[in-house]
Structure formats: C-alpha cells, structure tokens
User: Fold these one by one.
Assistant:
Number 1:
Amino acid sequence: MRMERKSIMESSDMMLAYIKYLKAAPALNTRRIFETWRKESGVGAYTLKLFFRDGTLYVTLSSSVVRNSIKPFINSIMAKINQSLQEDPLFIKDEPKVGYIKKIIIK
C-alpha cells in the first residue's frame, strides 16, 4: 500500500478534523456552551439544568431572585458567551447542528 503525501497540518487543525470525522462535534459544542455559561453568566452556582436545541439555551436556576435579577442582562450575557465561544479553539464554528446561541430562556 502506498501512502500519498499531504500538506502539513497543525495539531489543532488535525484534532478538529478528527473530531468532525468521529461526528463528535455537536456534543463537544454543547459541552463548550454549557461550560461557557457557567463561567460567563456569573450564576453558575445557581444553575440546576442546561439544555440546548436549535440555537436556544434553556437554563433552569435554583433561585427566583437570581432569575429575576439577570433577566434584564440576558442579551449582554448571550453576546459575552458567543464572543467567548468565538475565541474558543475547541468550539467548531461551522457545525450546522450546534452553533452559536440565538436565544436564552430562563426557567
């Protein structure tokens, strides 16, 4: 068997290609969204459940006081999370199933 020479790839590009090959990109992107929510929202300690589908992040919080206090800031939190995801080297930006957050629903 003869191997063909290919162009040199950086290790990060090779890792992303391997993730796409395994079809693990949607699960990885979902995990990155959840981790970024916990880090950027400031209410990670009060977060009970997270669910992501069709660009909408559903968040269940344990405190109604916290829920009411962050509602006015949802758009800025969403922008901050999307900016952080854009800078994240492990977030696969061209994944059609799980991409950036378009809407956040707080329960």
Note: The CA atoms of residues 68 and 106 lie 9 Å apart.
Number 2:
Amino acid sequence: MTQRLNYYSLAPAFGKKLQEFSVALESSEVNKEMEHLIDIRASQLNGCAFCLDMHVKQAKISGERELRIHHIAVWRESTLFSTRERAVLEWTEAVTQLPPHGISDEIYTAVRNELSEKELTDLTFRIVAINSWNRLSVAFRNVPGSMDAAFGLDKAGLK
C-alpha cells in the first residue's frame, strides 16, 4: 500500500486544529486505559490499519496486557473487561457506526449507568476524534508503522 498524499502538509491549518483537539482530550475525564480501548475498537471498526497499528503500540507501551488488546475485537465474549469498560466499548461502537435510527435508549442507559454526564461527553468527543483520524488515514492510505520513529512507537518492540 502506498500513501496517496500527505494531507497534513497540504492542509496544515486543519491538521493542526485536529491535532490540538486531540491533545486537548488528554485532559478529559476518560482515563488512559479507556482511551486505548476506544481508539483500538474504533480503528478496528473503520478498517484503519494505520491507526490500529499506532494505538496497539501505544497501549503496549502504556502497559496494557497483550491478551486484552487481542480481545478488544471480541469484547462481548471476553471476560477480561469490566462492566464500565464494556459500556465504553458499546458506546464507541454505537457512535462509530451510527445506527440508521440513532443510538438506542438501552445503549445510552447502559453507558449512563457507568459514566457521569461529563465522562460520557468527554468519551463521545474522544470517539469523534479517533473517527476523524481514521477517516483521514483510510482515505489517504497512511502506511501502518510509517510514523513509529516520529511518535516513539518503536519502543513497543512490535514489527
């Protein structure tokens, strides 16, 4: 796969704003462990190899257990995730895939039973951000692993 174009260099003002948005989310109510679950699951659903590669490496560097990383794709069947994490994954899927008639009250209630209004709001903005990056990377075919050195992801020891 060859990258189609470098959108970041062609539209630096937009790229910078999206990057600032992503950086601002680091001070959100969503903790690091949850961020990895969100970013990995959305990237899986969107078929974004670049972002999936990056976020798996980030999760490993941050100390996430490898088995849990492998189980994100099958979280419903896995026993490795808490009720809170399951609610976050369910919401991530719903916001990423947006059902034709909106997100059901059942899914909303399940996540609200686990998260405060502020946490849910921050979570949703996090999902919006990763979906934006996924769409850019899929559209322009960012090459997985091509930014490892720049992002310090070579420390993950995954090739």
Note: The radius of gyration is 16 Å.
Number 3:
Amino acid sequence: MEKNQRFVDGQKLLAQVDAEAADNVMDSLKVVAPDVSRYILEFAFGDIYARPGLSLQQREMITLTTLLTQGDTADQLDVHVNGALNVGLKPATIVETVIQCIPYVGFPKVLNALTVIKKILQERHLVPDESN
C-alpha cells in the first residue's frame, strides 16, 4: 500500500483515537478489501478528521451520535466509544451525548448504544461490573 501524505496523516490521527482498534480493522480487511483500509486512513482520517475547526473530542461525539442514529453499528460504536475515551471525553459526557439523542432517534437505538458503552466502561474499569 502506497503511503502518501493523506495516508500518513490519517494513520497519525487514527492512532490518537484508537491505535489497537485501527490495527484490528486494517488487519481484518487486508485479505478481502485492502483498499477499504486505505480509504479509511486517507479519506476519513487524513481528510475529514484532519480538518481544522473541531477537536478530536468533538469529532468523536459527532461520530458516536451518527453511528447510534444508523443502528446496527455496535462494532463501530465499540471502536469510537473507546476512541472518545482515548481523546479525553469523560464517561458521563459520552452517556449524556447519547441520552440527548432519545427525542430524535428513540429509545431502542439509544439503549443499544448504551449497552455498548456500558460494556466498554466495564472493560476499562470505569464503572462497576455488575456480573461480579
């Protein structure tokens, strides 16, 4: 895969958001659709995330709300909830951001997103694990 400046910039930004998840996604696409990895790095992160005007925290909040409104995006929500925490968003801010969506997208999508958030917060020991 040729590494142009957009690719390099995208790698740097994605590493700030969630380097481990990024590696997992890129590895999972390597065999079947390696170009999609390049699109994610160059376009989503090298072009869009690199734009001036919004912080990484703001970008992650927007990403979380966009993913939850689509529904059926648990895997992507997992990556971006971790990313939101990695760039400094507090758990309460993430939860409140999701709650704000209830009047606009409804309880089912918000509850699904909260399920993903709870799992990640428990894995990261940021809330008690109720299974213990």
Note: The two ends are 45 Å apart (CA to CA).
